[in-house]
Design brief:
By secondary structure, the chain is mainly alpha-helical. Helix content is 97%, strand content 0%.
């Protein structure tokens, strides 16, 4: 029976290890996507800043109303893209948070099975040690009886 429960615990521990590995892969993927989304957000913000600098230089030199209106329309679209990308960044960060929680849960589960396996092995070892001690005691008693007869 002890061997059977150890086999079951071993199987559960293997499954938990696979779950941890899968959760780690999912977390890494989510982190990669979040980093890519943030990099795109940073690029859009830098792009906008460059255009603001260009606009300021052009305004110093003088600009027509139509050109200024085109710049304003462009900034409106760029700001929409930045806002949309910010949502993507937030969703990606939320996914990282979720995947991290799933990974932590799978780690705890794996650790629990490791603890149970360790306890089971210690129990089995204790039983075997008692059995060995009993056999040694019986052997010593037989030797003592044989010497006295």
């Amino acid at each position: 029976m002890a061997t059977r429960s150890n086999n079951v615990l071993g199987m559960l521990q293997d499954i938990a290890s696979k779950e941890v590995d899968e959760a780690a892969v999912a977390l890494a993927k989510a982190m990669k996507l979040a980093n890519e989304a943030q990099a795109k957000q940073d690029m859009l913000n830098e792009y906008r800043l460059d255009y603001v600098r260009n606009l300021n230089k052009i305004l110093e030199a003088g600009m027509g109303a139509k050109a200024y209106q085109n710049f304003q329309n462009f900034f409106g679209k760029l700001d929409q893209a930045i806002a949309g990308q910010q949502e993507v960044v937030e969703l990606a960060n939320q996914q990282v948070k979720i995947q991290k929680q799933l990974w932590q849960e799978s780690q705890r589960k794996k650790l629990s099975y490791e603890v149970l396996t360790d306890r089971s092995e210690k129990r089995i070892l204790k039983v075997e040690q008692k059995k060995d001690q009993k056999q040694m005691d019986e052997f010593a008693m037989r030797i003592t009886r044989t010497k006295h007869h």
